């Protein structure tokens, strides 16, 4: 089993939940080795991590972020 074949996907029909007091967000994800389900677990992020992820995804989706080559740095 190689870590290079692993990937995560949001769990089907499962919605993220949040704690309004702490800002913690739990995103249900399914972990796969190739296409074989290995586990279903929550990805737990702090509010600041969720905000940074949202901002980064917004840039990726808008096409304004310069892609980083595999194994490289900007």
Topology:
Elements: E1 6-10, E2 17-18, E3 25-33, E4 36-45, H1 47-62
Antiparallel strand pairs: 1-3, 2-3, 3-4
Give keywords.
four-stranded antiparallel beta sheet; 4 strands; flat; 74 residues; alpha+beta
Task: Walk me through this protein's architecture.
There is one protein chain. By secondary structure, the chain is α+β, with helices and mostly antiparallel strands. 22% of the residues lie in helices and 35% in strands. It is built from one helix and four strands, in the order ββββα. The chain has one helix spanning 47-62, and strands at residues 6-10, 17-18, 25-33, 36-45. Strands 1, 2, 3 and 4 form a four-stranded antiparallel β-sheet that branches. A hairpin with a 2-residue loop joins strand 3 (25-33) and strand 4 (36-45). It is flat. The termini are far apart.
Mean pLDDT: 87
Radius of gyration: 15 Å
Question: Which term fits the overall shape?
Answer: flat
Characterize the main sheet: 4 strands, antiparallel
Could you give the order of the helices and strands?
A: EEEEH
**Span between N and C termini?**
30 Å
Helix content: 10-25%
Number of helices: 1
Please report which band the strand proportion falls in: under 5%, 5-15%, 15-25%, 25-35%, 35-45% or over 45%.
35-45%
Total beta-strand segments: 4
Structural class: alpha+beta
Which regions have little confidence, pLDDT < 50, spanning 5+ residues?
Answer: none
């Amino acid at each position: 089993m190689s870590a290079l074949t692993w990937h995560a996907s949001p769990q089907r029909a499962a919605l993220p939940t949040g704690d309004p007091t702490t800002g913690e967000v739990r995103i249900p994800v399914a972990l796969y080795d190739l296409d074989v389900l290995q586990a279903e677990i929550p990805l737990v992020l702090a509010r600041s991590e969720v905000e940074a992820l949202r901002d980064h995804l917004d840039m990726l989706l808008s096409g304004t972020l310069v892609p980083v080559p595999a194994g490289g740095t900007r």
